[in-house]
Design goal:
The protein is mainly alpha-helical. About 75% of the residues lie in helices and about 0% in strands.
Length: about 475
């Protein structure tokens, strides 16, 4: 970015704005969001294009010179892709190895074999949480729904009674727990501690999954009817006959250890920081290196090649194919995440972030609740949880100044909780769930959309309570 445009945007973000400038900024932000909604909802174009065009309109309305309209967008996109793009790629490789090696099936079969009819909903929530750690939400659905259908047909269970807990486990992990791209980007924007965020995120996630999953599924089962397509009932044996599954599987223990390795390393870094807060000796430096997201995910991928690939009989050539095939489908995800970062940076640079933080201080409004509300607004308007997380984190990042480490982590979680609020017709996940569950739009709103809202509300309540005690 040119020095002149950097000074211009910095002045816009730091100078005390007058009331008429506030009005212009609000109009600019509303114009940007309106364009994004129109491009996605009316023109049906890719969110990357919607975010790009919306950013251009917003910065123009805010008064940025024509030659500098996309400077902030380009800067934010580059920074976001640089910080999360490699992590997304590593997560995709790990997820593909987990799926293709049969490791995911091993987790499912092992847990289901130890479950009764009464505990099946709880087991499905656990399975979704474990498998969802290295996977993006949409990929997790594609992997889990055939499993849900198989469980339903074998045990004569209700689709919603089994499926809602699985969706809840996936959704909560996606919104709150690194190494998913949204939480990682929010941690970077707000400068929160990774390990503290994971630890507090798990405290929030467990009761949230229970309430929105097994508990809510009892009510969802009475409110709607789900009839999944018959083609989804493909058994693991049939997939093996078709050549889609390996003849052997990795062990349950090896699979779990591989999946949990990144989280354990990140939590280890946080523990090392607590035990050695005064300096950077060899112990602290080692865990700082191992617990960095890039290192943790890279080590998990390398380990997976041996613990998952080798037991499944994968040759070096097959492992190379798995890596190659895992990267293609994530191109769109990386572009959306990057564009969300660009839009966020434009919001920050034109002064929206400072304006909102000034209002919060003046009105003595809860920073955690404000972060949640901003993310809710962006989620409802754009439909993307990841975009809502990245954008809202940039907007509320000034509120983190002066906060303690735990409260900064809670600010990240508040943004993540807001990003899950009320998925509806502008969200790709809404249509994915509708199609896989064979529900009408009305029933999808009564089940999936309500479940997402419960997750968001329960999570922010827990976060606010934690804010009183940490």
């Amino acid at each position: 970015m040119r020095a002149s445009s950097m000074r211009l945007l910095a002045d816009a973000a730091t100078a005390p704005p007058a009331s008429h400038n506030h009005t212009q900024l609000i109009i600019a932000a509303l114009a940007g969001f309106a364009v994004i909604i129109a491009v996605i909802g009316w023109l049906k174009l890719h969110p990357f294009l919607a975010l790009t065009v919306g950013t251009g309109v917003m910065t123009l309305v805010a008064g940025v010179p024509l030659a500098n309209v996309f400077d902030s967008f380009a800067s934010g996109l580059g920074a976001t892709v640089a910080s999360t793009g490699v992590l997304i790629a590593l997560g995709a490789i790990l997820g593909r190895l987990l799926a293709d090696s049969g490791g995911a099936d091993q987790i499912v079969d092992t847990i289901l074999a130890r479950s009764s009819k009464r505990t099946i909903p709880w087991a499905m929530a656990l399975i979704a949480a474990l498998i969802g750690l290295p996977l993006f939400f949409e990929i997790g659905i594609v992997m889990l729904i055939p499993v849900v259908v198989l469980v339903v047909r074998r045990g004569n269970y209700s689709m919603l009674r089994v499926g809602i807990p699985a969706l809840a486990g996936l959704s909560v992990l996606h919104g709150l727990i690194p190494p998913h791209p949204g939480p990682l980007a929010a941690i970077s924007s707000i400068h929160a501690d990774l390990g503290t965020t994971i630890a507090l995120g798990l405290v929030v996630a467990i009761p949230t999954v229970i309430i929105a999953g097994p508990v809510f599924s009892r009510f969802a089962d009475r409110w709607a009817v789900a009839t999944p397509p018959a083609a989804l009932a493909t058994t693991a044996d049939e997939r093996a006959e078709e050549g889609d599954a390996p003849a052997r599987r990795p062990s349950f223990g090896a699979t779990i250890c591989t999946v949990l390795l990144p989280v354990v390393l990140m939590l280890g870094k946080a523990l090392a920081d607590v035990l050695d807060s005064n300096g950077h000796n060899a112990f602290r430096s080692t865990f700082d290196f191992l617990g960095a997201p890039l290192t943790a995910l890279l080590l998990a991928v390398l380990l997976a090649m041996f613990t998952l690939g080798r037991p499944a009989g994968f040759t070096r050539g097959r492992i190379s194919e798995v890596v190659e095939h895992s990267l293609g489908p994530i191109a769109g995800i990386v572009l959306i995440v990057g564009a969300g970062g660009g839009f966020k940076q434009a919001l920050v640079d034109i002064g929206i972030s400072k304006m909102i933080s000034d209002w919060a201080v003046h009105l003595h409004f809860s920073a955690l609740l404000l972060a949640w509300l901003v993310a809710v607004l962006i989620r409802i308007t754009t439909g993307s949880a990841t975009v809502a997380t990245i954008t809202a984190a940039g907007i509320v990042s000034p509120l983190a100044a002066g906060m303690s480490g735990p409260h900064t982590a809670l600010l990240v979680l508040a943004v993540g909780a807001g990003s899950l609020f009320f998925s509806h017709v502008n969200d790709a996940g809404f249509w994915l769930v509708k199609g896989y569950f064979g529900m009408s739009v009305k029933d999808t709103l009564k089940t999936w959309s309500v479940m997402e809202t419960i997750i968001s509300v329960v999570a922010i309540v827990i976060i606010l309570l934690l804010g009183l005690v940490v």
